[in-house]
Amino acid sequence: MEVFSNTQLIIITILMFIGGEVFTSMVGLLIRGFSRHSSIKQGGRVNDSMSDLGIPPNFHDQLELGTIANPEFESSKSDIFDFGYDPEHVPDTDELKFKSIKFLGLLVLGYLIFVQVLGVASVFVYMNVISSAKNVLKQKGIKIFTFSLFTIVSTFASCGFVPTNENMMVFRKNSGLLLLLIPQILLGNTLYPSALRFSIWAIGKFKKKAETSYLLNNTKEIRFHHFLSHKHSSFLVVTVFVFIIIQFILFSSLEWSSDPLSGMNNYEKFIGAMFQTINTRHTGETIVDLSTIAAASLVLIVVMMYLPPYTSFLPLSANKSGKRNSDQRKKKSTRALLDNIIFSQLSYLVIFIILVCITERKKIKEDPLNFNVLNIVVEVISAYGNVGFTTGYNCDYRLKQDGICENKLYGFSGKWSDGGKLILILVMFFGRLKKFNMNGGKAWKLL
């Protein structure tokens, strides 16, 4: 990373910012909100493109002077009135819907700017105040502001890049810096839906009560992947922290007195272990060399990297399950055929791992300590989860020492063949788009 100039780091920062999940979701919301809202204001009624939102074809005939003779509307309207609104000031339900979508887009924009500006300012102040952290950047020739901006954007966007060659290992004793990055990890990834819903609830206490009430009570109608119901958001928070606690207990019990955390006091170990476990989903910043940690910890990290960011334990009622099965039976034959031939996410990952083992079979035979299957699995699952964790490559593990190999801090895939690297690139694209195939493999029944 240190071969990049200051200008190149800024360019990479811009790319990470516009490629982040929060930014891309915000752009989609603003496009939906402004375009649909303007079409309603210009035409005075909703156009035919609204049919994809579940609005019946004869909806236009039901619209008269902002009043809809529709039982569903009356029900939703009565729900709004329960919050104390004056019926004369309640806008048409569809106009309210798209005003709410536009408001949600602006809220995400504010959320994005507020969290990252606060993060950059905090890290910038910390790096200027704490001499040990400041000296590291001074020795490496990295500007403090560039480091602060780059690291916060990368952390919030779950990229895992840090301007130093050693990632966060060089700052493993700077517990304050690690604590400043932990909220960025959670708010930009696993806890984004819950934080977004909480922000809407908090704003609704003071202003925009019609829009916030509609958003909080009509989660499905908004059709926004990152906006979950109250129940789902609550279970998501619990699940995230349960996963963190499980990882922290296992990692601490196995690594507390081992080499990866040597030279650190108990407080530094506690914060470092917490930072390391939170990063497994899915930021990828690390304070330890993953090749030196216990295999059990590495396997758990693989599982955490595989899980999508919004994985949660969410009990479902039997009625909902039955309804879902009924809906599936109504699918078109072409869609049913597609469902039958699509594999599950895990099946594709197994295929990718097998392909990498084939392309790297010569190195697996000649250099088995570095090119072991577990290291390959870590690299592939890390690419799939867009995490960025890597076990690296250690020249000392080679069976045949030729004196040419030099230990450098770079990813394990740096030693792969071109074929293996191309497969890993495909895995990264596949992982970035995995939400479009989360229901694959349903035709297989494991009995």
Automatic annotation (TrEMBL):
PANTHER family to which the protein is assigned, alphabetical: CATION TRANSPORTER, POTASSIUM TRANSPORT PROTEIN DDB_G0292412-RELATED
What is its membrane topology? Multi-pass membrane protein
The UniProt entry's GO biological process terms, in alphabetical order, are:
metal ion transport
Instruction: Give the UniProt family note.
Output: Belongs to the TrkH potassium transport family. HKT (TC 2.A.38.3) subfamily.
In Gene Ontology terms, what is one molecular function of this protein? monoatomic cation transmembrane transporter activity
Name of the protein this chain belongs to: Cation transporter HKT6
Q: Where are the transmembrane segments?
A: 9-31, 103-129, 141-164, 176-200, 233-254, 293-316, 337-356
Instruction: Show the GO cellular component annotation of the record.
Output: plasma membrane
The compartments listed are: Membrane
Key words, A-Z: Ion transport, Membrane, Transmembrane, Transmembrane helix, Transport
State the InterPro entries in the record: Cat_transpt (IPR003445), TrkH_K-transport (IPR051143)
Q: Does the record carry Glycoprotein as a key word?
A: no
